[in-house]
């Protein structure tokens, strides 16, 4: 099935996956796009060591029941969304990445049935959010959050630009304000042997400088989205801590797949990883 232009959500029927389906359905309705509910079932389960041999058809039947139940759940809450269901054998993460390659958005829960309950992020969710080729949402924390701002990690990197674009559009769809949060590194005092160290710029002045830089980044988008109320916040240090803290009062946090400080060649920056483990609301990884 062609999923281009649609939202694809993966489900295994677990409570986190059910929350992901609900979130994706609401997002599909707000965007006016179709929703594809997908279950990928393990085609090796028929010969799992130590377990009774099972027919692969049983796995397909279970997968069909899971997506049918998910579709019925969407039907009880929404009426204007076209819903498709898909089941496919294979590794769940690999199938989701492949089937969602051309989607507008790929959505997963933060854990599935196979995850250890002590883990904050399941292996499938981590692989999908890291390797997906389209924008990806991991539904976690306050999964039904509908109040508060759309929170965006703002910087001048290419990933930061994608995050700002996605954040403004998300704020427009939700009629929500946008909070652009930028973290900066404080300079280390210069020291010359035999001379007193040169103090760094005044902290308040440095914060104002970075706030001005962020406002410059936002200028064209503010013109494009005049109805979106924007607030800028700057913080010294790394971005992960302030973003996680602000996520407790946000309905969505948006970051780029890379920002300043990400190692070349990495697929997802450290800030994104921290948010996927600790954010208190759904996390959108913006990609081009």
From TrEMBL:
Source superkingdom: Bacteria
Residue span(s) of domain UspA: 6-140, 149-287
Source organism: Actinoplanes lobatus
Protein name stated in the entry: Nucleotide-binding universal stress UspA family protein
Classification via Pfam families: Usp
PANTHER family membership: STRESS RESPONSE PROTEIN NHAX (PTHR46268), UNIVERSAL STRESS PROTEIN UP12 (PTHR46268:SF6)
InterPro entries hit by this protein: Rossmann-like_a/b/a_fold, Universal_stress_UspA, UspA
Family the entry assigns: Belongs to the universal stress protein A family.
Classification via SUPFAM superfamilies: Adenine nucleotide alpha hydrolases-like
